[in-house]
Amino acid sequence: MIATNKNAPLARKIMEENQIDPESIKGTGIDNRITKADVVNHINTPTYENHIIQSIPREERVKMSKIRQVIAARLKASQNTAAILTTFNEVNMKNVMDLRTRYRESFEKKYGIKLGFMSFFIKATVQALKKNH
């Protein structure tokens, strides 16, 4: 019988994580101690892999309820008929970046928050709405 406390610490950790019984591994270290390599070799054996595959519970298929079938059908129809569109607008932000850099410290001292881009976007949106209203 191999005393688990005499095995390599890393080997013990890997065995604990993978729930491996130390008795199932033949140690190749000094005094037949189990090394990391022994554990890795054990994990990579086909019998160990089959054991893991067999211990994984199988998924169970359950028939969808009528309401779920209707929801799925409508979601799929919506996906098939909706236009997927992405629009990109490029804007030269140099002036905004310069303003932001110039007033960053005074704005932060006065209001206690950093000056972000959102306020510039809101201002531009309001001006565009006023112009086109």
Whole-number tally of structural domains: 2
Give the structural class. mainly alpha
Question: CATH superfamily assignment of the largest domain?
Answer: E3-binding domain
Biggest sheet descriptor: none
The count of β-strands is: 0
Percentage beta strand: under 5%
CATH topology of the largest domain: Dihydrolipoamide Transferase
Taking pLDDT < 50 over at least 5 consecutive residues as the criterion, the unreliable ranges are none
Percent in helix:
55-70%
What is the molecular shape? flat
What is the overall pLDDT average? 84
- Count of helical regions: 6
Radius of gyration: 32 Å
CATH class call of the largest domain: Few Secondary Structures
SSE order: HHHHHH
The assigned CATH architecture of the largest domain is Irregular
N-to-C CA distance: 87 Å
Short overview:
Helix content is 57%, strand content 0%.
Explain how this protein is built.
With 133 residues, this protein is mostly helical. The chain has two domains: 1-82, Dihydrolipoamide Transferase, CATH 4.10.320; 94-132, no CATH class. It has six helices and no strands. It has helices at residues 9-17, 36-43, 46-55, 66-81, 94-111, 118-132. Helix 1 (9-17) packs parallel to helix 2 (36-43). It starts with 8 loop residues before the first helix and ends with a helix. The model has no long low-confidence stretch (mean pLDDT 84).
